[in-house]
Amino acid sequence: MYSGVCSDDSRRKVQRCGPGSPTEDLRAKLAEFYAERTLTKQLVLPRDCGNAIVWLTSDQSAKTTGHVIPVDGGLPEAFLR
Fold first, then answer.
1. Which ranges of 1-81 does DSSP label H, i.e. alpha helix?
2. pTM of the prediction?
3. For residues 56-76, b (16+ Cβ closer than 10 Å) or e, as one string?
4. Each residue of 24-53: pLDDT tens digit?
5. Which of 5, 58, 73, 77 is within CB 3.0–4.6 Å of 38 for a Cys-Cys bond?
C-alpha cells in the first residue's frame, strides 16, 4: 500500500493507492494462479500501479480526493463468485 501520494498542488490529495499483487514478489506459478482468478484474467504489474499513480497526480484527477484506487484486476470480486 502506497500512502501519502500527492502533487505539489494542494488541491489534489490522495491518501493511498491500493495495488494488487505485483509479480515481482511472487513466483511465476503463484502469479499465474492469481491472474487466472481475476476478472480481467491478467497479471497486475508494477507499471499498472505506477500508471494509476501518474493519473492520480495529473490534472485529470483534480476532483478525486480521499479514495483508495484498487489496482488489482478485480481479484477480490472474482473470489466472491
1. 28-37, 46-56, 75-79
2. 0.58
3. bbeeebeeeeeeebbbbbbbe
4. 555 677 778 878 888 888 888 889 999 998
5. 73
